[in-house]
Amino acid sequence: MALGNTSKDGLFRNIRVYWLAFIVYWGIVLFGYDTGVGGGVVSANYFLQTFGLVDENGAKDQKKLDNVSSNVVAVLQAGAFFGALSSAPVSSRIGRKFTLFAFTVIFSVGAILTTIANGPPHGLPLIYSGRVLAGYGIGAISAVAPALWQVAIGVMISYFVNYAIGVHVPSGVNVWRIPFGFQLVPAGIMVFGLLTVRESPRWLASVGRQEEALNNLAYLRRTNTSDSEVLAEMAEIQAAIEEENAARAGVNWKEAFFGKGNFVRFFIAFFIFVLQQWAGQNSVNYYAPQIFASIGYVSRKNSLLASGVYGIIKVVATAIFIFFGVETLGRKLSLFISAIGMGSLFFIIGAILKTHPPPSTNPNVAPPAPSPAAQAMAGMLYIYVCFYSMGWGPLPWVYVSDIFPTRTRHYGLATASASQWLWNFVVSKVTPSMLTSLRYKIFFMFGAVNIGAMGLFSLLIPETKGRSLEEMDIIFGAISAEERNANIERQKALDHHDAHSVKTDSVDRKEEA
C-alpha cells in the first residue's frame, strides 16, 4: 500500500499506515523466529535425554538424533509450502486483513501444541503436529506480507532466546517450552493488532466495494473522503486494478508457461531458488548450533553464542544492502560476487576443518574452549553471511519480479514461491545427516555449488537493472527488436494521424463558424 503524499501533516498524516505496517511486519518476524528456533531446541542436552537420543553414558545416538532434528525443523517447511500455496485464493476471497488474522490464529494453535508438549510418548508427536500447523500459518503469512529484513531479525531473536535458555535453564521441560512459547508474543501482537486496523483499500476496490475502499483510504490518510489527494490516490488504485485485469484477461497456465518467451523465465524463477536453497545459508540458518559445534564450538553455550553473533551480522549486512546497495551493482554482478565470495569461504572452512578437526568430547568432562582454528572458521562464516546478504539472499526475489510482465507475473511468483519452499524443505531435512556423514566435505560441497553452479548461473542470466518490462520481452524472445521498433513506428504514425485529424476537424469547425 503506497504511503502517498505526506506533505500536509508530515509523519502524522500516515501514522495509521505505519501502524498497519508495524502490525503486519510482526508476521515476518514470526516467520524468521520459527525457522531459527528449532535447531537450538533439539541441541539441548535435556531434550536429547528426554526423548532417548542419548544412552545412559551420555553418548548420542547420532542416526536417531539426525532423524528427530530434521523432522522438528523440516515439518515446519512442509507446512509452510502448503500455507503459501493456499494463501492466494483465501486472500482474494476474504481480504488481506482476515487472511492474516486467520492464519495467525492457525499458527498460534501450532505454537500452543509445541509449548504444551511434555516428554514421551506424546511429546514428539505434539511438537511435530504443532510445527506443521505453525508452518502452515507462517507460509501463508509470508505470502501475503512478504519482506526480508524482518526474517533476519526473527532468526536473530530465536538464537538469543535459545542462548538465554542454554545459560539459565539447563534442564526441565522449559528447555523447549519457553522457546516455543515465545512465539506467541509476536503472534499475540499481530492477532490483537489486526483487530485495530482496517481492510486494504486496494483489495476492496478489486472486488467492487468502491465506497468502502474510499472510506478506508481516507481513514488511513486521516482525512475525509472529499480530500483531493485521497480522491487522486483512489483513482490511481482503480486505474492500476483495471490495467492489471486487462493485462491478465484470458491468460491460462498453458500460455503462461509455454507462450513465446515465457518458458525461460519460468525456468529461471524455479532454478534460481533451487540454487539459493543449496547455497548453504539455510543449513547454517536452521542448524546454527550444530554447524558451529561441527567446527569446534563444542560447548553448547559457545555454539549458541556464536549463532547469536551470526544472527546479528546477518541483520546488519542485510539492512545495509537493502537500504543502500541493492541498486548499486546491478543484479548479475551482485549475484556473481556473492556466489564467488561464499564459495571461496566455504572451501577455506573445509580445508581448515580437514586439518584441524574439532576435539572429541566426553559427556562427563567439561568441553574445551574453541581453538584458534575454530575461531578462524567462525570468522569465515560471519564474512560468508555478508556475501550472502549482498546477493543470493535478497536478489532472487527482486530478479524474478523484474523478468515477468504483468500478464504472467502472478504465475511466475507462484512458481518461485513453490520452488523456494520445496527446496527449503529438502535442505532442512537432509542437512543433519549430511553434516554427520560428510563432516568437513559438506563445506566443499557448498563451495562447489556456489562457485560452479551459482557463479556460472549469475553470468548466464541477463541483467535486469534499469530495464523496462518491454525490454524484458525482447531479451527473452517474446518479440524481436525489429518487430518492437516496427510497432513503435506504427503507433507513432497512428498518433500523428489522430492528432492531425483532430487539428483538421478543429480548423473546419472554425471555418464553419
Automatic annotation (TrEMBL):
Molecular-function annotations in GO: carbohydrate:proton symporter activity
Location(s), subcellular: Membrane
Record domain Major facilitator superfamily (MFS) profile: where: 20-465
Membrane-topology descriptor: Multi-pass membrane protein
SUPFAM superfamilies: MFS general substrate transporter
Record GO cellular component, one term: membrane
Membrane-spanning intervals of the chain: 17-48, 68-86, 98-117, 123-144, 151-169, 175-197, 263-279, 304-326, 333-353, 373-399, 442-462
Catalyzed chemical reaction(s): myo-inositol(out) + H(+)(out) = myo-inositol(in) + H(+)(in)
Pfam families per the UniProt record, alphabetical: Sugar_tr
Keywords: Membrane, Transmembrane, Transmembrane helix, Transport
Tree of life domain: Eukaryota
Region feature (Disordered): 490-513
Family classification: Belongs to the major facilitator superfamily. Sugar transporter (TC 2.A.1.1) family.
Stated name of the protein: Major facilitator superfamily (MFS) profile domain-containing protein
Source species: Candolleomyces eurysporus
